[in-house]
Amino acid sequence: MKNISDNLKKDKESGKTAYAGISCLYEKWCTGDPFYEKTKQFYMNYLPQREGPFLELGVGTGRIARLLVHHYAVEIIGVDICSEMLDICVTEYCRQKKSGCPGTLCLEKADMTKLHYFEQFGTVYLPFRTVGHILKEKDLDAMFQGVYRALKHGGGFILDHYMFDRMWAEAHQDVDILMYSDDRVRIEDHYLYNFEKEYMDCTIKVNGTVADQFCFRWYSKECIGSAAQKAGFILESLMGEFDGSVWNEESGNQIWVWRK
Ligand SMILES: C[S@@+](CC[C@H](N)C(=O)[O-])C[C@H]1O[C@@H](n2cnc3c(N)ncnc32)[C@H](O)[C@@H]1O
Description:
Bound molecules: S-adenosylmethionine
Order of helices and strands: HHHEHEHEEHEHEEEEHEE
Helix content: 25-40%
Number of domains: 2
CATH class of the largest domain: Alpha Beta
Radius of gyration: 18 Å
């Protein structure tokens, strides 16, 4: 395996973003995540009760947004930084639209730390721990401020992230983790954790060859809570699991709901 920082530098120079390499297998790859199904069910149940229009940050292939517009007459704008993920989302959404669906989905290539919307949305959501792709705290602040500006008065912001599990991470440090396999493809993750600096280098291998690499960081509850408060948000609820249970010290997740 090549050195990850050399590869990431090369990708930056060529304009290639994380997820470009795994985009066509993304929805197979993430079935290996124990929260794949739970996040989908959670947002499918929760969002239709909230006010639209909706903004999904890091919409990817539209795993959640496409399902929502398929079942509900909701208006969603999805932003993502990765063209390859958005291309898949567009293709799949057009196919869906032809067979008829009640909602609408508009897509935009944009960086969630540089949002330009103003008082346009009833609800913004950032699902599937995607906040961990924001590596610097100043960018985390910028994301929260951009979301605050994007929301109408009284609008809501929902974000989920995990509670970092050091024991799990130590047991899975520098080993291949099977995410998906069928007759033709085998997809594995490989993580190198930097516990002191609170980030991990993630490598995704398809049939043994490196397909994608990116850094991902984990945020404490305090760090997320303080960035939200600084931006002006008022806490509505903090859940600890995708079944809606209230957060406690044993919770595996931090699922936040704020109000502007
Ligand atoms: C884990 S995937 C989540 C995709 C989708 N929301 C889902 O639940 O399947 C993370 C997505 O966030 C996107 N992303 C990462 N950093 C971003 C940024 N700064 N701005 C916008 N999108 C970003 C990636 O390109 C990727 O499509």
